[in-house]
Amino acid sequence: MMSQTLRKIPTTRGSLIGAEPVSHGDGLSWGAVLVGGLIGVALMVPLLLLWRGVAGALPAPGGLWPMLLPLPALIGAGWSAATLAGTARRRIAALHGVAVWALLLVIVTAAAIFAPETLQQVVPELVGAAPAGLGDPVLGTMALAGLFAAALGGIWGGPRRERGRA
Q1: Per-residue model confidence as pLDDT tens digits over 133-147
Q2: How many CA within 13 A on the CB side of residue 99?
Q3: pLDDT of res. 114
Q4: What is the mean pLDDT of the segment spanning 84-96?
Q5: Beta bridge partners of 17
Q6: Residues contacting residue 99 through CB under 8 Å, at least 6 positions apart
Q7: What is the DSSP secondary-structure string of the chain?
Q8: Which of 16, 112, 118, 165 is the most exposed place for a label (fewest CB within 10 A)?
Q9: Which has the closest alpha carbon to 71: 158, 160, 161, 144?
Q10: For residue 9, what are the β-bridge partners?
Q11: Residue 78 near residue 36 (C-beta atoms within 8 A)
């Protein structure tokens, strides 16, 4: 019989001694999600400024292009959240990306409800981005695209699979 090392497992009422190793990294790291959200906003600012510079040189800027700007920022936000969390599972890494997307969606929705003038000043392209009558389906599709972009960034930031392993 092989001897196993005993580990102390901290609890709120002292510590337990058990033979099973404590598993870390299987839960959601809210610190990583918050930092990923900040990184997503920080990535969005230069992308928005670049778009405004390019749009000024184009003859007819607009359409759906301004709505695609958040996708690279969400990929970066999901990647950074999953990398910072250091999780050992790809599903949990993708969950970090989805959590960053949800956090940023709540912030943007709250800004649209409680401070629409401020949001209009920051991103004036959003008002005319969706054609009349198709606004809700287009915005819903773009929100889902953001969800998948953030999850993809989380998967890319998660653990790498070794060759030969399924």
Answers
A1: 556 677 778 888 888
A2: 23
A3: 86
A4: 89
A5: 8
A6: 28, 30, 33, 81
A7: ------EEEEETTEEEEESSPPP-SSS--HHHHHHHHHHHHHHHHHHHHHHHHHHHHSSS--TTHHHHTHHHHHHHHHHHHHHHHT-S-HHHHHHHHHHHHHHHHHHHHHHHHH-HHHHHHH-GGGTTTSPTT-HHHHHHHHHHHHHHHHHHHHHHHSPPPPTT--
A8: 165
A9: 144
A10: 16
A11: yes
Q: Which residue has the higher pLDDT, 132 or 118?
A: 118
- Model's pTM, two decimal places? 0.71
Confidence of residue 42 (pLDDT cuts 50, 70, 90): very high
Pick 68 or 23 by higher pLDDT: 68
Amino acid (one-letter) located at 79:
W
Q: In this structure, are residues 101 and 36 in contact, taking their beta carbons and an 8 Å threshold?
A: no
List all residues 6 or more positions away from 6 whose beta carbon is below 8 Å from its beta carbon: 17, 18, 19
CA distance 110 to 44: 18
d(CA 11, CA 98): 30
